[in-house]
Amino acid sequence: MSFQRLVIGSLLIFLGLILVFIAIAIAIPGSITKGFGIIIIGLVPLILSDGTIAILIISALLVAIFFIVLLLLLRGYTMARQ
Fold first, then answer.
1. Which has the closest alpha carbon to 63: 16, 14, 7, 20?
2. Residue 53 buriedness (CB in 10 A; 0-12 / 13-18 / 19+)
């Protein structure tokens, strides 16, 4: 049960980071369509049009992936100790 909470929590962190960077992309003037492009199409139009927002989003994804891997490693370590 705690493993399911761990996965759900890490997914919520991941989605929260994505939403924060989508909000940043929408808030920057002239990038409203780019912000919705993230939601609908993905990262490709952003990487082509504005590199800085894409770098922020990719770094958020990498941080979220890092935390998920870290939590899974921690879970495996605590299970191995028992």
1. 14
2. buried
Within 10 angstroms of residue 44's Cβ, the number of other Cβ atoms is 11
Residues 6+ apart with CB under 8 A from 66: none
- Token digits for 16? 């929260």
Distance from C-alpha of 25 to C-alpha of 53, rounded to nearest angstrom: 6
Look up the pTM and report it. 0.38
Res 3 pLDDT > 60: yes
Residue-wise pLDDT for 36-76, tens only, equals: 555 544 555 555 555 566 666 666 777 777 777 777 777 77
Tell me the chain's radius of gyration from C-alpha atoms.
16
What torsion do the CA atoms of 6, 23, 25, 17 make, to the nearest 10 degrees?
-10
The pLDDT, as a whole number, for residue 42 is 53
